[in-house]
Write a structure and sequence with these properties.
By secondary structure, the protein is an alpha/beta fold. The chain has a domain at 66-253 and 328-335: Rossmann fold. Helix content is 33%, strand content 18%. The protein has helices spanning 31-47, 52-63, 114-122, 142-156, 175-185, 230-236, 242-248, 275-287, 307-323, 332-335, and strands spanning 64-75, 78-87, 94-100, 126-130, 163-173, 209-213, 262-267, 292-297. An eight-stranded mixed beta sheet has the order 1-2-4-3-5-6-7-8, sandwiched between helices. Helix 3 links the parallel strand 3 and strand 4 (126-130). Mean pLDDT is 89; it is low at 1-17 and 332-338.
Length: 338
């Protein structure tokens, strides 16, 4: 402590400082305003705590609407149906994925494959999820006819559902991969759309791309020999000439240069659909100078891919889409919520 005395200079007058009395600021007396500010800011604070993927999943029901079991074809009183998932609000038309499930043409349901469509919904695409007639009800080419008629229905109703008919991609897995290939590859001369085009006067609608997950490409090869598969034999068993029918509904039969671009994803250890089927299609398309890619999953079996394998496959798919001028991120808000 400083013990020196306080010095005062008596030769100068010292004026006492003036003290100003300022009113204290009023306290906020509006709890309703505080509550409103909290309601406005709290969601933003909460959203900032979510990862982009968690944000997308959480807000998807607010941005995507589902319309289920729309009838696209009626044959002998039996209705074939599809589901549509599309973005809410104005805008569009938007690029659209047509997804076809697997099941050896005998089983499976469109609902089983919804998870396969999530990457496309995340990219901002619409999704059409197609159900088709089973082999127990109608053997070959019934499922192919259904899928071609589903494609025609989508094109005919494009304006109603804000679908961009010039940017349609068809995708399927296993027998659904086969049906996706046939939907995008079958020419009008194949006459595989008779239920919805009985006169044959209408052209087959075009798609912008095909994504084939380990699909059957040559059914003749599966009827006998080392690659014989019961599911293929059963599907064409009732045909008058099963080999002729098998060729007619085999994608390799329709390889030609003017096809839309095709990407095939196939595991080279697939016990259900031999990997040689993917190689055969790839070689046939190359020979026809058709645009195509083959993405091989080393050691991959019939689907059931690991998360890492699926990520690599979708990286290849996105590069494929971008290469052919198809978008991989439409909804910028969904892609970057923060």
């Amino acid at each position: 402590m400083d013990a020196r005395p306080i010095e005062v200079n008596e030769s100068k007058s010292v004026e006492s400082p003036k003290l100003e009395c300022r009113p204290k600021p009023p306290r906020v007396q509006h709890p309703a305003l505080l509550a409103l500010l909290f309601l406005v800011l709290a969601p933003q604070m909460a959203l900032s705590q979510l990862s982009p993927s968690a944000w997308w999943v959480t807000t998807a029901p607010s941005r995507i609407q589902a319309q289920s079991n729309l009838t696209y074809l009626v044959v002998n009183g039996r209705e074939s149906k599809l589901d549509i998932y599309r973005r809410r609000g104005a805008g569009g038309p938007d690029p659209t994925l047509i997804y076809i499930h697997g099941g050896g043409w005998a089983g499976g349901h469109k609902e089983d494959g919804v998870m396969y469509t999530l990457p496309w919904l995340e990219m901002g695409w619409n999704v059409v999820n197609v159900e088709y007639v089973r082999s127990a009800v109608a053997e070959a080419p019934g499922a192919v006819e259904n899928c071609l008629c589903a494609l025609r229905w989508v094109v005919d109703h494009a304006a109603e559902y804000r679908i961009d008919a010039s940017r349609l991609v068809v995708m399927g897995d296993s027998s659904g991969g086969h049906l996706a290939l046939m939907t995008g590859m079958a020419p009008a001369t194949a006459r595989l759309d008779r239920p919805c085009n009985p006169s044959g006067d209408l052209p087959v609608p075009k798609v912008a791309g095909i994504v084939n997950w380990y699909g059957i490409t040559d059914i003749v090869d599966l009827l006998q020999g080392p690659n014989r598969r019961d599911y293929a034999v059963d599907w064409v068993a009732k045909a008058d000439n099963r080999e002729e029918m098998a060729r007619r509904v085999s994608p390799v039969t329709w390889a030609r240069s003017e096809l839309p671009p095709i990407i095939t994803i196939h595991g080279d250890s697939d016990p259900t659909v031999p990997y040689s089927q993917a190689l055969e299609l790839h070689e046939a398309l190359n020979a026809a100078h058709a645009r195509n890619e083959l993405f091989t999953i080393k050691g991959g079996r019939h689907g059931g891919f690991t998360p890492e394998e699926r990520v690599r496959a979708y990286i290849a798919i996105r590069k494929f889409l971008a290469h052919y001028g198809l978008p991989t991120a439409i909804d910028s808000e969904a892609a970057n919520p923060h």
